[in-house]
């Protein structure tokens, strides 16, 4: 049986990744999950911590972004499905970039966000193959995609038995 590789991109201030992981585990779905570095300070400071300090905040951020891109590009490239969550509190420009990058690679993208972001994310939503509002909906999408199972529906052959 195939193990599906999921890349979970986006906001880092809630436990949505853990909710998807727990839901997939409960459903017995054969998935392996990866994500960007979610320790905010480590992600911001990795470049200067490893390669040396910068006088300019631009170059400080640039070094970190380039190092993070090594991880992000590799894991998105290896993933079967990319899930991108846009949170309520912060603008996740990097998440929008990840969605666009994944779309350019012709990877299936599932987007999660609330109704208040519908207009701002209309282009991202148009490129996605599914737009959900909750982690639970993502788990149900994955159950359907991976197993062909839809809650409340039974196979005609099973029903006849």
Number of helices: 7
Question: How can the largest sheet be summarized?
Answer: 5 strands, parallel
Quick one: overall form?
Answer: elongated
| Helicity, as a percent range | 40-55%
Output the radius of gyration.
18 Å
Q: Which band does the percent of strand residues land in?
A: 5-15%
The tally of strands reads 5
Round the mean pLDDT to the nearest integer and report it.
94
Going by helix content, strand content and strand pairing, the class is alpha/beta
Distance between the termini: 26 Å
List segments where confidence is low: pLDDT < 50 over at least 5 consecutive residues.
none
Reading side by side through the largest sheet, how are the strands ordered? 2-1-3-4-5
Q: Strand-and-helix sequence, N→C?
A: EHEHHEHEHEHH
Describe the structure.
The protein has 161 residues and is α/β, with parallel strands linked by helices. The chain has a domain at 108-161. The protein is built from 7 helices and 5 strands. The chain has helices at residues 16-27, 40-51, 57-78, 93-104, 122-127, 135-147, 156-160; strands spanning 4-10, 31-34, 81-85, 109-112, 130-132. It has a 5-stranded parallel sheet with strand order 2-1-3-4-5, sandwiched between helices. The radius of gyration is 18 Å and the shape is elongated. The mean pLDDT is 94.
Produce the secondary structure layout.
Blueprint: E1 4-10, H1 16-27, E2 31-34, H2 40-51, H3 57-78, E3 81-85, H4 93-104, E4 109-112, H5 122-127, E5 130-132, H6 135-147, H7 156-160
Parallel strand pairs: 1-2, 1-3, 3-4, 4-5
